[in-house]
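Q&A log
Question type: sequence-to-structure
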Amino acid sequence: MNEKPIKVDAATDRTVSELAYFLRTTKKAVVAIAVAEYSEQRDRYLAAPATSGGSGEGEFGPEDGGGEHGAPGDHGTGDTRASARPTVLDLAPLQRLALRRTELVRAFATHGAGGIRLLDTAPAAPGEAGLVLLAETDIVEGGQAAWDLSRVASQLLGLRVEVISTTMLRLFDKPRLRRALEQSRPL
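Response status: OK
Response body:
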């Protein structure tokens, strides 16, 4: 992949450089995390129901469609944020996973996990979607690692995600590990 630099002003570059230094990571990682958090905040804002009162402008200002007059052609029907702009939450589980794959891999890596595989798309409840992932976890973390990764993935993707530790399966249930690896595919 041929990456191109993003041009920013000197003050922003200095801030990103300092954050990368203090967080012991790269400038690229700092920017990626910031963009992901911005996207998450924007998704929450766009999915939130409209409140009465105030100027009607959203957190992002009138230029993003959050103004009191709505979008062109709105004809005064009120808030059009949810219908005019789809969010990550409107996507199917596999589409969400594809969109946020890099963020998920990075988040798992910070928890000492890797080798992520998609095992299944399983309904969490009738009408509710969910995913089942396999991941190599740190043996020191034990059973807690899979629970922590499930929580991280669920927050990132906005749906129920179950993570099964291939490390634990390798130690305690090799036939189940073999079946799980056969039925799964790399992320």
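Response note: Confidence is low (pLDDT under 50) at residues 51-78.
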